[in-house]
Backbone:
């Protein structure tokens, strides 16, 4: 029996079967496309922030991610209903996974947040934008005790620039000065070194004084609280002790049923209840007044710190800026400033210190649904093609055509006469 | 004129009835005839020989003694109309008078096969009683078969009105011709109606290689039953013995 090509077999299929196969392909394809418009489960809102390139040194996104550290997110995350049931670490992790920061332009930062609740999505986005916009380098002036001050630990790459800005300004100034002093290519001028060292010592001294003042104030607040508590409870305790003594003296002389003893008992009970119900903390008015005073005092101290910071910043600025000049002219015998040496950390500009590197351009007002197709679009077509192919294969098997007289002999009754086979009609024209 | 001469003339003369017993000779260019017909322009020696062999087998077999052959196929496109024409030509070449009659009233094809010639009076006219049966028949040259074609397409709902007169026509044709070949609609189509089921006689089933599904042949065999007397394989790549 001769073989027949697939194309010929498909062509020989009845038109109805071929149309049906095409219909299957189209139907399944269309049905396969439908799941691409699956119901929306998440919404995303975004806010747009302006970036001060001079303050971020081209690392706005990294800076924003540094600002949004675990501590910052730890304060934001519990306010979202979807995250409230998670543990603290999980909240931060989940918050960070839903948060997306991108930098479409060098002067733009886009913050978006995904959530099932569109209102919460917009709220969280705005909260993050507010956090970034309110961040000011000058706020974190206090030098953390745990921060390493070893200048060797400072990375020499450009990344140092952005990281250094994020660090407390006192530390930045300190490290900048230290690296300047330790660099063999930079601090060659003994006069400058003495000036910088003097400034550094003064800064450190003032910072230490500020820390001491701050610490002393905190101690004073604590002591004041303790004293206040003690001052309120002491009279009651003295009265109670006296009442108990009086009760013991009366019991030695009379029975408990004696009226004086009963009166003393009631007095002791009253005192004990008064003592138990007395406030464990000082009155709010007194406490607030003291706290206000302490806060005011701290604000003054911070202003003083800012002044010191400016001085340190100027010292940092002045020192590296002098070196190219020194290499170029003032100190002709000194080696030139090496290009390979790590650049000095760029100091934030005055405006950046006042306003911060980010400012909100567009707040998140509404959340748009996130379209996440559950199936790729082509999957429907593939399924349709496979189904149509299977159908065609089935039909090809069912509609096997006559291939020779031998295949007819199996199905034609024996008494049917076979008149013959006619060859294909091919002609040669006489035109 | 011999058969060979018939096949090699550039034009075919048709003696067409134009009504009221009058006839008109129409010259039909062979190039306009469907190429699957052996009377068309060109050389079909192999196919003509095969049809002549089939005609000889037909003449030898006693089961065709009614000399009325229903030619049909399981599905459309198997070549039954061309087979009817070519077989009629082969029988004519054997000196028999042959009438080829078209019984496809819904979609008549004779006219198109013959290059779109005009049919003045067709079988449908005779069955409606508007003309005599003899006025519906035209001859294809001197030794060619006579042909009775359908002039107009008839809706399937009106076919029942035509079929009662078909018995009378076939009886008339059986008396006038040695062989009457009836080109019938496909046996598995809706046109194969109750008339065919009741009046069908010896039937020649035409199948086409690489076209007709075996399953349909099996169904056609079942429908035709004992009336199926012969089988012809069209467009076969193997020459029959």
Residues:
């Amino acid at each position: 029996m001769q073989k027949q090509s697939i194309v010929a077999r498909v062509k020989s299929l009845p038109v109805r079967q071929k149309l049906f196969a095409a219909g299957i392909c189209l139907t399944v394809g269309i049905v396969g496309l439908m799941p691409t418009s699956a119901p929306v489960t998440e919404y995303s809102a975004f806010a747009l922030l302006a970036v001060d390139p001079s303050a971020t040194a081209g690392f706005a996104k990294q800076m924003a991610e540094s600002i949004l550290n675990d501590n910052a997110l730890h304060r934001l995350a519990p306010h979202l209903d979807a995250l409230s049931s998670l543990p603290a670490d999980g909240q931060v992790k989940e918050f960070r996974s839903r948060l997306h920061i991108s930098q479409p332009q060098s002067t733009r930062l886009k913050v978006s947040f995904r959530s099932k609740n569109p209102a919460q999505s917009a709220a969280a986005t705005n909260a993050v934008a507010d956090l970034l916009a309110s961040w000011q380098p000058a706020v974190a002036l206090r030098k953390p005790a745990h921060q390493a001050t070893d200048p060797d630990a400072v990375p020499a790459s450009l990344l140092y620039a952005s990281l250094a800005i994020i660090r407390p300004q006192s530390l930045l100034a300190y490290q900048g000065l230290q690296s300047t002093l330790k660099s063999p290519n930079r601090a060659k001028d003994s006069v400058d070194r003495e000036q910088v060292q003097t400034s550094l010592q003064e800064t450190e001294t003032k910072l230490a004084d500020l820390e001491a003042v701050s610490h002393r104030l905190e101690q004073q607040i604590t002591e004041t609280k303790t004293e206040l508590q003690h001052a309120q409870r002491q009279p009651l305790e003295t009265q109670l002790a006296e009442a108990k003594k009086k009760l013991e003296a009366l019991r030695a002389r009379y029975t408990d049923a004696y009226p004086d003893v009963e009166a003393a008992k009631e007095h002791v009970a009253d005192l004990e209840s008064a003592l138990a119900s007395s406030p464990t903390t000082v009155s709010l008015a007194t406490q607030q007044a003291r706290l206000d005073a302490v806060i005011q005092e701290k604000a003054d101290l911070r202003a003083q710190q800012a002044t010191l910071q400016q001085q340190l910043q100027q010292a940092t600025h002045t020192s590296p800026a002098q070196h190219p000049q020194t290499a170029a002219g003032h100190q002709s015998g000194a080696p030139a400033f090496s290009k390979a040496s790590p650049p000095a950390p760029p100091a934030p500009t005055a405006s950046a210190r006042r306003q911060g590197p980010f400012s909100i351009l567009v707040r998140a007002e509404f959340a748009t649904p996130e379209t996440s197709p559950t199936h790729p679009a082509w999957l429907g077509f593939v399924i349709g093609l496979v189904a149509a192919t299977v159908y065609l294969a089935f039909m090809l098997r069912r509609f096997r055509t006559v291939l020779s007289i031998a295949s007819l002999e199996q199905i034609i009754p024996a008494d049917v006469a076979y008149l013959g086979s006619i060859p294909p009609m091919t002609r040669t024209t006489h035109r | 004129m011999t058969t060979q001469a018939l096949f090699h003339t550039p034009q075919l003369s048709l003696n067409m009835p134009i009504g009221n017993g009058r006839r008109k000779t129409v010259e039909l260019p062979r190039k306009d005839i469907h190429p699957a017909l052996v009377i068309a322009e060109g050389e079909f020696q192999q196919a003509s020989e095969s049809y002549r062999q089939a005609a000889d087998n037909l003449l030898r077999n006693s089961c065709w003694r009614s000399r009325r052959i229903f030619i049909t196929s399981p599905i459309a496109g198997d070549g039954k109309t061309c087979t009817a024409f070519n077989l009629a030509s082969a029988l004519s070449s054997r000196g028999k008078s042959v009438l080829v009659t078209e019984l496809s009233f819904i979609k008549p094809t004779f006219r198109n096969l013959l290059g779109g010639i005009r049919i003045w009076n067709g079988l449908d006219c005779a069955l409606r009683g508007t003309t005599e049966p003899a006025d519906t028949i035209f001859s294809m040259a001197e030794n060619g078969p006579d042909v009775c074609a359908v002039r107009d397409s008839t809706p399937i709902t009106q076919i029942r009105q035509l079929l009662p007169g078909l018995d009378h026509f076939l009886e008339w044709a059986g008396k006038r011709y040695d062989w009457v070949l009836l080109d019938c609609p496909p046996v598995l189509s809706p046109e194969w109606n109750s008339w065919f089921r009741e009046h069908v006689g010896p039937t020649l089933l035409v199948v086409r290689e690489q076209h007709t599904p075996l399953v349909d042949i099996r169904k056609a065999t079942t429908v035709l039953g004992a009336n199926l007397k012969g089988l012809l394989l069209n467009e076969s790549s193997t020459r029959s013995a």
Notes: Confidence is low (pLDDT under 50) at residues 1-6 of chain B.
